[in-house]
Amino acid sequence: MKDFSHLYSNATKWAKASVIRELLKVTSNPEIISFAGGLPDPQAFPSKKINEMLNIVLKRYPFSALQYGATEGSARLKTELIKWLKKTEKIDVAPDNLLITSASQQALDMVSRAFINPGDKIVVTNPSYLGALQAFQSYNADIVGADSDGGGVVPESLEKCLKQIKSEGKTCKFVYLIPDFQNPSGVTITQERRKKILEIIKKYNTVLVEDSPYRAVRFEGNAPDTFYHLDGGKGNVITLFTFSKVFVPGFRLGYIAGPKEVIRKFVILKQSMDLCSSKILQLATMEYLRNGRLEPHIKRVVSIYKVKRDLMIKALKKYMPAGVKWTEPAGGLFLWVELPKNIDTEKMFPTAIKNKVAYVIGSAFYHDGSVKNNMRLNFSYATHEEIDEGIKRLAAAIKDYAK
Amino acid sequence: MKDFSHLYSNATKWAKASVIRELLKVTSNPEIISFAGGLPDPQAFPSKKINEMLNIVLKRYPFSALQYGATEGSARLKTELIKWLKKTEKIDVAPDNLLITSASQQALDMVSRAFINPGDKIVVTNPSYLGALQAFQSYNADIVGADSDGGGVVPESLEKCLKQIKSEGKTCKFVYLIPDFQNPSGVTITQERRKKILEIIKKYNTVLVEDSPYRAVRFEGNAPDTFYHLDGGKGNVITLFTFSKVFVPGFRLGYIAGPKEVIRKFVILKQSMDLCSSKILQLATMEYLRNGRLEPHIKRVVSIYKVKRDLMIKALKKYMPAGVKWTEPAGGLFLWVELPKNIDTEKMFPTAIKNKVAYVIGSAFYHDGSVKNNMRLNFSYATHEEIDEGIKRLAAAIKDYAK
C-alpha cells in the first residue's frame, strides 16, 4: 500500500484521537455499564414533537428547507434566538452578533482556527473539557492551565498565568472556560469570581471564550450571570451555545454570540469549513423555539437528570470506600471523582472493565496529563438501575485494584 | 470597540470571503436574473419523499436518530453506499474506506488540513472550483495551475508542473481535479487522459483528489471510469462525493472514498472539527437509498437539467454577439463563456447588473486571478423563461460594455 508519510501535514501529527471515542469502542460490550460518554438520555428526546416540526417545515418551506442556506445561519432561527437570549439570559444581541454552527465542536474548531498560530499561548482551567483540548492541540496551541477549586477557576491563578505569558513577551490568544457545571468537574464559577475574571481578561487585553453547553440544565439554586451579559456587549467575551444537551445532539446545531467583527471573521472561515449548517434542521429548531416548546422541554430534562444525579450521589455514599471524594454539581451531566493519590485511574481501567463498568480517565482532562487520580462520571445516560449497579461495580473495582 | 488585531491567527488573513457568496448578496434583488449561484433547481427536490423518510426514521429509530453518531458515519448508511458505488461505479470499498462528511466543502477542508502546511505546493487546473481554491488558500497552499482544454487537464502540462516542483526539491502534496463536468468549465476529462494522469500521479508519488459532485448528472454519452476505479484501490486516489447536487444540499451530506490509512487520519481530524455529521439526516438518506429512490430521482434531475442546458445554448446562439464562445457540457450545472480578450468580466459586472443579469467573474476560478475574459453561467437554477430572458440581457450587457 502507498506510503503517505511525506504528504501529511503537521496538523495530522498534532491531532490526537479522542480518548472518549476510543474508550467508547472498548465499552461497546452491552454488559458493561458505561459512565464514560457524555450522551444525553435518549428517553428525554422529543421525537414526536420533532417529527411534527419537520412535517411543518417541509410543508411550509418545501424548497428553501432543502436548499443551501446562508453561511451566517437562518435569519428566522436567529430571530427566535435573539428573543430566547433576551428572555432567558438578559442578553441583547443583533443578528450580526450571532453565527449558527454545526454544534459546539465546530465552534471550538472555529475559535482555534481564528486565533491560534502554532505555538501560541492560550489559558484553560485544570481540568478542562477534552474535546476542547483536542481542538486546541490540533492547532498546536501552547496550553497553560490555571487552577480551579469548588468555585471554579481561581482568579489569582488565572492572573498569574496571564502575567507569566506577558512577561515572556507573548500574547494569550484567549482564555477558555466552561463557567456552568464544568466538564469534567461539574463546578460552577461564582458570581463574585466572574466579575474578577472579566476584569483580568480586560487588564491583559485578551478575550474570554465562554463555553456554555450545560448552563440551562440547572437543578437548583440561582444561576450567576453569563460572562456575555456581564461584559455588556463590550467585546471581551465570545460565548458558545449548543442545542446538543438541551434539545438533541443529532441535529448538530449550536450558535456563537460575539462581537460583530469576530463573527464576520468566523463567517469567512465557515464558508470554507462547511459552507452552511443544515437548513431543514435550523428551521425545525426555529419552529420548536417559536412554538414555545424549548422551555418546557428543558424543565423535563432538568427533572430527569436531577433524579439521576441524586441517585448517583446516593450510590457513591453507599458503596465507595473511604478516601474517595466527589463533586455534587447543581446541574449538567457530569460529576468528578477523586481517588487517593496513589491510584492511577488509567492503570485501574482494565480492572474496571473486568468489573463491567467504565468511566473516563481523569488525566485526559489535563492538557499535560499530569493528574492521574481522578475520573469523570456521566449521570445523564445510564438508567436508574444501572446507576446503582454501576457505582457498586466501580467501588468493587477500586477495592480490587487497591488490594 | 475592542481591537482584535493582536489576537487573530494567520488563517484569518489567508481566508478570503467567497466571491460567489458576496455576489449573491448583490444579486438578491429579485429583478435580477442570476446565473451566478451553483444552486440545484428546488423544483426537483423530493420534499414529499424526504418527509416520508424522516417519518420512517423517527418511528424506527426515535432515540438513535437524534443521538450523537459515530465520527466515521452511520454504519447503515455506509452499507447502502457500498452497494451504490459497486452498482453505479464498479467501485469496491469496505466500510473503513468511507467517511461520511458534512458535504463536499468539509471534505475539501479536511483534505487541506490533512495535507497542507503553509507554503506547501499543490496542483490544480486552470480554471478550478473557487470553493476549493478558497479552502486551499485558507491553509496558505502555494498553488500551481496546470492548463486544461476541451478534454480536461492537459497531461503534459500537469507533468510539467510536477517536474518543476520536484526540481525545486519540493513535494506536491496533492493534485486536485474535478474530472466530470468540471466547475466552472463544464469539461470532462477523456478516458485516455485519465490513464495518463494516473500514471503521472504514481510517477511523482503524490495523490489525486478527485472531486466528483456532478458526475451522476450526465445528459448523454458514456461516462469514462472514475479515477478511483481506474486505480483499483491502490491508494493513489481520494474521491469526494456529495449528495448536494443529486439529492438535496440542505442535508449537508457527502462522503469520501480513500485508502484506509488516510480515512483514519480524516476521522481523527473530524473528531475535533464537528464530532459527527447529523445522524437523523444520515439515516433518512440511507432509507432513500435502501428504498431504491436515488436512481429514479437522478434520472429526473438529469432530464430537467438537460432541457435547461439546451435552452441556455439555444439562447446563447440566438443572442450573443460574434467573438463570444462557450462550452457545451454533457452534464453538470455550469457552462463557461469566453469573451474577446479585451473584455474584463469583473469590470463589466456593473453593466450586467444595470441590465439586471448576474454571473460569476471568470478570474475567481484562477488561483492567481490571471485570466479576466471568462464568466461561469449556471443553468440549473433559473426557470426556462429566465434562461432566455437572462441570456438576452447578458448579450445586451456585453454589447453595451464593448461600445
* Major pleated sheet of chain A: 8 strands, mixed
Describe the oligomeric state of these chains in a short phrase.
homodimer
CATH class of the largest domain in chain A: Alpha Beta
What is the CATH topology of the largest domain in chain A? Aspartate Aminotransferase, domain 2
Instruction: Count structural domains of chain A.
Output: 2
Describe this structure in words.
The structure is a homodimer of 403-residue chains. The first copy, chain A, is of the alpha/beta class and 403 residues long. The first copy, chain A, has 2 domains: 10-45 and 296-402, Aspartate Aminotransferase, domain 1, CATH 3.90.1150; 67-294, Type I PLP-dependent aspartate aminotransferase-like (Major domain) (Aspartate Aminotransferase, domain 2), CATH 3.40.640.10. In chain A, 44% of the residues lie in helices and 14% in strands. An 8-stranded mixed beta sheet of chain A has the order 2-9-8-7-6-3-4-5, sandwiched between helices. A 4-stranded antiparallel beta sheet of chain A has the order 10-11-14-13. The longest helix of chain A is centred in the last third of the chain and has 26 residues, at 294-319. Chain A is globular. In chain A, 56% of the residues are buried. The mean pLDDT of chain A is 96.
